[in-house]
Design brief:
It comes from Natronolimnohabitans innermongolicus JCM 12255. The protein is about 70% helix and about 5% strand. By secondary structure, the chain is mainly α. The chain has a two-stranded antiparallel ribbon with strand order 1-2. The protein starts with a helix and ends in a 26-residue tail after the last helix.
């Protein structure tokens, strides 16, 4: 009986120690230097990337080139906002894992704000890739729709506490949407980039993007949300490094290419068109 009382007291203590308010979560984040740095580093890099785009894009005159630059800037704008929310504790919660999870019954820190980052930033990445490849609006919007579905179902996987099976089932649905996006990038857009004349740049961008994106579900599976092999801070840094590669490095390569305004990405008077301007025949 005495041991039962001790166990109950210990359980109550664990619950009381779990941060609940934003200020408590904020303190928790900064008590873990590694975790805090995974957020702050991305805030700094996103800010520097925005300044880089503004500085490099001042002389760009073509409307379609400007559209690509604006889309790349929005990637970092979303990131700096989202990482600020994570740092402040606004988009972080402690969620009790269901039975069958390696950390069942524990309140585990869940960075659900990252899914907001991906939901709003990933479509801009795909818009940039689609425009570089010279794809049409239908395919670009299709990938954007699938990426939003992928991120929302990924968020559902992270927040589901009813059962381990349902968490992994959401993960499977999210991964299926992801594979559709990968197919369009690797097959359709690769072929279109060959026709457009942007294959050299696009092939580099697609490899950085697709290989980096495969890292996200792997980290999810190995991190605290999956089988919990990796702790929270290491998982967070893994996501942050992938964000650095697939957002800021990709952005840098795109900007350096677009500011030269090559014919393969310009559209003349066709504002935002994914095809070059077509000269209308004159009347006889």
């Amino acid at each position: 009986m005495h041991s039962v009382d001790i166990l109950a007291a210990t359980s109550r203590q664990v619950v009381l120690q779990t941060p609940e308010t934003q200020s408590e979560i904020f303190e928790y984040v900064f008590d873990d230097t590694l975790l805090a740095l995974s957020f702050v580093t991305n805030i700094a890099l996103a800010g520097l990337t925005i300044l880089f785009i503004v500085a490099m894009g001042r002389g760009v005159t073509d409307p379609r080139a400007n559209l690509i630059l604006v889309a790349t800037m929005l990637i970092s704008i979303v990131s700096i906002s989202s990482y600020t929310a994570l740092t402040s504790g606004l988009t972080i919660s402690f969620i009790e894992m269901p039975a069958g999870h390696p950390r069942a019954g524990e309140a585990v820190l869940t960075m659900w704000g990252r899914y907001l980052t991906w939901t709003f930033s990933t479509p801009f990445i795909l818009i940039v890739l689609g425009l570089i490849a010279g794809s049409n609006l239908t395919k670009i919007m299709t990938t954007c729709a699938f990426t939003i579905a992928m991120c929302v179902t990924g968020l559902a996987a992270a927040l589901t506490t009813s059962s381990v099976f349902m968490r992994w089932w959401w993960f499977v649905i999210s991964s299926t949407f992801f594979l559709v996006i990968v197919y369009i990038i690797m097959v359709d857009w690769t072929a279109e980039a060959e026709t457009t004349g942007t294959a050299d740049l696009f092939n580099t961008l697609k490899l950085l993007t697709v290989i980096g994106w495969f890292g996200y579900p792997i980290l999810w599976g190995l991190g605290v949300e999956g089988i919990a092999v990796l702790d929270v801070a290491i998982t967070s840094w893994g996501y942050s490094v992938l964000d650095i590669v697939t957002k800021y490095i990709v952005t840098g390569l795109v900007v350096l290419y677009v500011v030269k305004e090559p014919e393969s990405i310009t559209a003349g008077t066709n504002y935002g068109s994914t095809r070059k301007a077509v000269v209308a025949p004159s009347d006889d």
